[in-house]
Amino acid sequence: WLAHSPDGVHLAARPDGGGVLVWQPGTAADPRRFACTDAKVNRAAFSPDGAAIALGCDDGVALGHAPGGDR
Q1: Residues contacting 4, CB < 8 A, separation 6+
Q2: What is the sign, positive or negative, of the torsion defined by CA atoms of 32, 37, 39, 43?
Q3: pLDDT tens-digit profile of 6-29?
Q4: Gap between the Cα atoms of 70 and 57, Å rounded
Q5: Can you tell me the distance from the alpha carbon of 24 to that of 11, in angstroms, rounded to the nearest whole number?
Q6: What number of other Cβ atoms are within 10 A of residue 17's Cβ?
């Protein structure tokens, strides 16, 4: 699956290797990997400003800052 932030800055995708990769298309920055604690990521959702990401995991919820999310 693929998710985009409401501000249009970030994309998130779940690769075959597990976790979630988040990146800013059009930049040379490497994707940032997010993961759950020993569990599969089922969904990802960005905060309205695109600065944070929430992962819905088999074992609960994980939160993180999107790349450049400290703006």
Answers
A1: 10, 11, 12, 46
A2: negative
A3: 988 999 998 887 789 999 998 888
A4: 24
A5: 6
A6: 8
